[in-house]
Structures are given as C-alpha cells and as structure tokens.
Design a protein that fits this description.
- The protein is of the alpha+beta class.
- Among the domains are: about 160 residues, no CATH class; about 150 residues, no CATH class.
- Strands 3-8-4-5-6-7 form a six-stranded antiparallel beta sheet, sandwiched between helices.
- The longest helix is centred in the last third of the chain and has 20 residues.
C-alpha cells in the first residue's frame, strides 16, 4: 500500500491533472507546470512510476503535452529520449511521462489515432536498445567522466518498461549485448548476469520468442545447464543427487557443464558443487568439467594434489566463477612457474588483516560461511586464469588494473608476493630510482575510496598500487617531460621498453611534430615498417578517451597485447582495456570491437590507423626501429585528420 505521504502526492497529482483537463485549450499552459511538478514529486517515490502509469491513458486527453515537442506521439524519435531523460528540470519529467504514455498505447490502455499498439511497442523496443547502458550501467571511462544526470531515475524507468516488453526485437538486442560481454570474459560478471536475468523474465511472458532457444542457453549457463542441475536448483539438493550418480552419469554431467562454461565463460553454482564432488569422489572427471586440452591435462596431472586443495578451499557456490578461472589457469600452465605453487599455498593460511577481511566479505554473498582466505584465493585463481578479465570497475584506477593484468600474464610470482603483503601487512613497497616507496606512508591517490565492485585481488591491491603510482608521478612532475617515461618501467617492470614518445610537448602543452610521432609509432610497431619485430611483452601506452561525438574526455591507460592481421587481412592493434567494457564508440566511426575481428577473449581491437589516432604516449625499443620514412603520407594524413578533428581541438598545434 502507498504510504500516507505518497497518498497525499497522488491526490495532488490527480487534482492538478483534473484542473488541466478542465482548462480550455488556450489556457492549458497555465496548468501544465503544476502537473509536471506533482509528477516529479511522485517520481521521487518508489511507487511513482506505477502510479503515474495508471494515469497515463489520460495524459493526451488532459493536454499534458499540448503545444510542446512531445505533443504528437507519432513524431517522437527514440534517439532523442536519452538526452531528455538526462536533462535538468522539466524535460526529464515530461520525457518520463511521454514514455509512460507510449507504454499505455502499446498495452492497449488507450487508443491513439496516429500510433498503433505495434508502433508504440516498436518505439519502446528501440528506446531500450539504444539505452542499454542506462538500464545496465557500463564501467567505462566515458561513464565515469561524463556523469549522467538522472541516471538512476532513467534506469528505474527502463526497468519498469522492460516488464512489459517481450518482443523478438528486444531479445535480439539483449542477445547481442550478452554475446558482446561474454566475448570479453570478465572476472566480474554482474552486468552480464543482470541482462541474462532480464532475458529470463522475458521468456516467461513471450512463449513464441524466435530467440528463445539462444536465450535459454544463456539462462542455463548461470542457473545450471544440465537436466539434473535444472531439476535441482539448490546447491545442497544438487549435491545429494550427484552422490548417487554412476561413473558414466558423472562423466556426462561433467561434459555438459564444462561445455557450457567454455562456450559462454559463465558458471553456475552447480559448477563449483560438481567440482568439489569430483575432487573427492571421481577426480578423473575433473578434466572433463574443466574441458582441458592436452596441455591443460598435463598441467592438471602434474599438480593434481594442489588442484584438489584449491578446489577444497576456494570453490563454493558464491565463488563459482572461479571454476572457469581454474580451467584457464591450467591451460596457461601457470602452476609450472616455480614461485606460483608456494605463493598459492601461502594464501590458504594467510593471516588477513581485519579491514581487508571485511572488504573481502562485502564482495561475497552472505550466509555461505566462507572465509576471507577462500574469497581471496578464488579471486587469485580467476586473475591468474583470466589476466585480461581484470577490470577497474567504477574507479579511475586504470594504471593499477593494468598492472595486475600484466603481472598475472608475465610475473605471477611477483603478483603472489605482493598480494600477501597487502592482505597481511597492510602495505607494499616499490623501488623508484633507488628509493623505496611504502604504500602505508602515502595518502590519497586517484581513488581514496574505491567503488566496491571489484575482484578480490583488486580489492586487496588497488589501494596500495594507486597510491604508489600517484607518488611516483608526483616525484617526476617537475622534470619537464611526461612522467610516464620513468614511472612505467619502475612500476610495471624492467621489461617495459626504455624508449618513450609522447605527442604532447611537456613544457608548453602544445602538439609538436605530430607526423613524426605517428611515423615513429608505425616504424616501431607496424609489421610492414618495423622489420617484423613482434611484441614480446604487452606495451603500456596512453590514449585519449573521446566520446561518441569525438570530444576529448581525458586520458586512459591500456596495454597493446599484439599487432596482427585480422581475418580480412588488415592490420589491427589488439589491446587490453582495463575498463569492464572494451567495446566503445569513440566518435568519427571509431568503434573498438571485442569480437568478429580476430580478437582473443578479453582483447579489444581497432584498425592500426584508428588506434594511432587516439594514441598520446608509447614505449618502444630504439634498437628495433624500422623505416619511419617509408610510412605512406596518406596514412599519416588520415591519422592526423582523425586526431585534429577530435581530441586535437583541445590543443594548440604548432607544427606538422
């Protein structure tokens, strides 16, 4: 039942709508503002959307939209909805009411002379498709920098509308979004799971959905892909059934769950339950559950005792996503690195500090009786198995996330050295130009308070890494050059190349000799100009972040993983983006992709030319520099035009 406060708001809104309805056409404008103000008060309550929707069939008749841009429902354009919802003042309220009117038409609550039920439904489907980032907020640079007005309210509106939509058009949009997200194989899958759950609700109300089978596969991937797991959704009940299966049935169950996990990168609680049962009862079927290749099986057999220990300590229903991490950890052969095994064992009995324990507990589901050590170990398994799945969440800590990803790929022993120090001792230290920097002695950083939706390793390490990186940059701030030249090799490791180039002239802040910068990048990175030297380690580079209009938003840290030809034969830069969503529109038709262009799981990619147009700093090996003079003038000119017409508008160009 609505609260007494809400009852009063309902009464005032109803009265204002009645007065507007009774007013003559020429006087409507006098009463519209009262309706908007009372509607806004309702929108501030939990029941507001539901209440306003009950009145939505009266909006047109009363004259709510008369003489304004929203008057003719047949002329409304879905691409303009987001802008109005994020505007301040009355446009936001009117847009909310307009969408509720369109929903009323789609539901047949009110006939409209120019808009049929089908047209209204198509309109709302397109609005939803264009605004999935509001319904399921992305953790991207743009979303962090461009704070969206009324974002929470818009999200509530789309969630409300989604209850009524179930057409195949929206299904196709959701399926594409799910495929795009799963292609990135993130460690944190909350956004993906939210979209899948929305899809599940659609399946309940739309029996003939043409995408039903595909959607069901994704739903099954997080709820249990086998008949047995479907029948017994509760982990304890599923476990009881597993104990009674024959060896042949256990193997078949393992195969089904394993194939689902490898296909989507998603796990259900049943995966962890089955892994625990197999570890005790039938360990010979674990390779089937993990869908291991020959290399993975060899790694499993060599380190079977440790694998069983990891399963026992770390894999539970709430940490089920780490089953996938374990599979990839074995495929990567990480356990063969000598420091890894003692490093993992140390975590099992590590004395974790109270504040770190509390932070880890907040990241897990309550009521399962997990220890902080179990949560941390599960997170370490995921990070070592999925280095490109590490994300910075809603935090401006791309440098720290990039570091965790780089070390997980190429220095797992070092990563396993600093994790216990941060968790047990509350500090880590790094040497910068002969002087040790201790995180416990530092304050601030880019993110003094972290948004909590991070993987356990990031929860433990990022506060320390963030402060140390910021301190290093502070110490070189007055050198008259870009501080990343010295900080990146010290922070990430000596394998970062010492050659360094930046597009911004440090003293003046102007753009100087841009063609030279472009030619140097081509000569050190493009296979046709750099004597075909391949990257040995990822290259930490800096890029300009631009929005969908090409407007500069700021700077961002990514890592170039490799440069290779895509299936179409064009050279592309494949890079790791610490954002939780690496498929982004940077304007000018530049859209980084995560699938369809030869990307490995977790990689983003752009054509070489497009990536170069957003680059502002990179490292290189001066002894592996090819023929910069050979780079085609057209290529340099195209890159320059893209740069100058986007982020370049924020700078003074003094040459080139």
């Amino acid at each position: 039942m609505p609260s007494e406060v809400t009852e009063g708001k309902i009464a005032r809104f109803s009265q204002s709508l009645t007065k507007l309805n009774e007013a003559p056409a020429y006087a409507k404008s006098r009463y519209q503002t009262d309706v908007y103000q009372e509607a806004n008060r309702l929108l501030e309550t939990d029941e507001g959307l539901e209440i306003l929707f009950k009145y939505a069939d009266k909006f047109d008749e009363a004259g709510v939209f008369q003489d304004g841009p929203w008057e003719d429902a047949s002329k409304l354009q879905p691409p303009l909805v987001a802008g109005s919802l994020q505007a301040k003042g009355l446009p936001y309220v009117i847009e909310m009411m307009s969408n509720l009117r369109m929903l009323a038409i789609a539901e047949g609550k009110v006939p409209h002379s120019n808009v049929s039920k089908e047209m209204a439904m198509d309109f709302l489907n397109e609005v939803m498709a264009l605004n999935l980032d509001l319904l399921f907020p992305q953790a991207t640079e743009a979303s962090r920098i461009e704070k969206k007005e009324n974002a929470a309210e818009a999200q509530r509106l789309f969630e409300f509308i989604s209850r009524y939509l179930s057409s195949s058009a929206l299904s196709e949009t959701l399926i594409h979004e799910i495929k795009r997200l799963t292609a990135q194989r993130p460690i944190m899958v909350k956004r993906t799971v939210s979209i899948i759950k929305m899809a599940k609700e659609m399946l309940k109300t739309h029996e003939n959905d043409s995408q039903r089978e595909v959607l069901q596969q994704f739903v099954a991937s997080i709820e249990g892909p086998s008949n047995l797991s479907h029948l017994y959704s509760q982990p304890n009940e599923y476990r009881k059934q597993l104990m009674n299966l024959s060896a042949e049935e256990l193997q078949r169950e393992s195969e089904i769950l394993g194939r689902s996990m490898r296909k989507t990168g998603l796990c259900s609680p049943h995966h962890s339950v089955l892994a625990r049962v197999l570890s005790r009862k039938s360990p010979e079927f674990l390779p089937a559950l993990l869908q291991l290749s020959g290399k993975g099986k060899a790694n499993f057999e060599e380190h079977a005792e440790l694998v069983h220990q990891l399963i026992k300590v770390a894999l539970f229903p709430s940490t089920c996503q780490s089953v996938y991490g374990l599979a990839l950890l074995l495929e990567r052969g990480v356990l063969s690195a000598s420091p890894v095994i003692p490093g993992l064992r140390r975590l099992i009995e590590l004395d974790i500090r109270p504040e770190v324990r509390n932070a880890l507990f907040k990241s897990a589901n309550e009521g399962e009786g997990l220890t902080a050590n179990s949560i941390l170990l599960a997170g370490v398994i995921s990070v070592l198995g999925q280095p490109l799945g590490v994300g910075q969440g809603l935090n401006p800590t791309c440098q720290a996330a990039r570091g965790i990803s780089l070390w997980a790929q190429h220095a797992p022993g070092y990563l396993l050295e600093i994790i216990p120090r941060a968790a047990r001792d509350g500090e880590i230290d790094m040497v910068f130009e002969g002087v040790s920097i201790y995180s416990k002695d530092l304050q601030g950083g880019l993110a003094p308070e972290l948004h909590p939706e991070l993987d356990p390793v990031s929860i433990v390490l990022v506060p320390h890494l963030d402060r140390i990186y910021s301190e290093m940059m502070t110490r070189v701030a007055l050198r008259g050059e870009d501080g990343h030249r010295w900080v990146n090799p010290a922070f990430y490791g000596n394998w970062v190349q010492k050659g360094f180039s930046t597009v911004i002239e440090p003293i003046t802040g102007n753009i100087a000799d841009y063609p030279g910068f472009v030619r140097l990048f081509y000569a050190t990175h493009h296979p046709e100009y750099n004597d075909e030297y391949e990257l040995i380690y990822p290259n930490p580079v800096g890029i300009f972040i631009t929005n969908v209009h090409g407007k500069m938003l700021g700077f961002h840290a990514v890592s170039i993983q490799r440069i290779a030809q895509c299936p179409k034969g064009n050279y592309r830069v494949y890079f790791y983006n610490p954002n939780n969503d690496g498929s982004q529109n940077w304007g000018q038709g530049i859209v980084s992709t995560v699938m369809g262009n030869g990307e490995n799981f977790g990689e983003s990619s752009l054509s070489f030319e497009e990536f170069t147009s957003r680059l502002y700093a990179f490292h290189y090996n001066p002894y592996e520099q090819g023929d910069s003079y050979a780079v085609e003038r057209d290529s340099v000119a195209n890159v320059k035009n893209l740069a100058k017409e986007s982020w370049g508008q924020e700078y003074k160009w003094i040459s080139g």
